[in-house]
Specification:
The chain is α/β, with parallel strands linked by helices. It is 32% helix and 25% strand. Bound molecules: guanosine-5'-diphosphate (GDP) and magnesium ion.
Length: 173
Amino acid sequence: MKSVENFKIILLGSQAVGKTSLLEKYVKNTFTIKYKATIGVDFLSKCIDLDNTKYSLQIWDTAGQEAFQSLSTHFYRGSDACVIVFDITSSKTFDSVSNWIDEIQFHIGYDRKIPMLVIGNKLDLNEKRVVNSQKAKQWCEEHGIMYYECSAMTGQNIEEAFINLVKAIDVFN
Ligand code: GDP
Ligand code: MG
């Protein structure tokens, strides 16, 4: 008989980096060019099968409360993993990644560790890139964080990124 694992994953990062777009592409396989201030719900769910285990992922998105300290404890509570998104064409969104990590650690408690994934999004705009791929990767490695570059527009690497995050949750638990 198959076992089912329920995981809560939170999506964070500066405004307009593509959090909602990544979530919608991953869960619904849709993409629209307009800015999506809110998806109107706290989270979207997706089920995946991995190594004979069924995973039910509850992926939480922010509804435009990307300013630091504006998200309530409710958002962070019970999270099993987190994804911090930045935009490879905006250096300030990469600079904010470490602030988001501090914020997450503050809310979940400094004694608790959860797997973290950083996504450099908008890989389809590679010719406008300002964040160096190797530097971002190295920074993440030094902090024990997984790193992927994805495109919510094309869908590139999104599945791989989430699969590896889910595998990491299993290792952490
Ligand atoms: P959020 O504020 O982080 O949730 O960002 P959104 O998902 O609302 O996206 C902000 C803007 O960036 C929208 O205009 C999206 O269409 C656009 N966008 C998001 N992801 C990508 C991507 O991978 N490539 C490109 N070219 N645009 C993207
Ligand atoms: Mg959004």
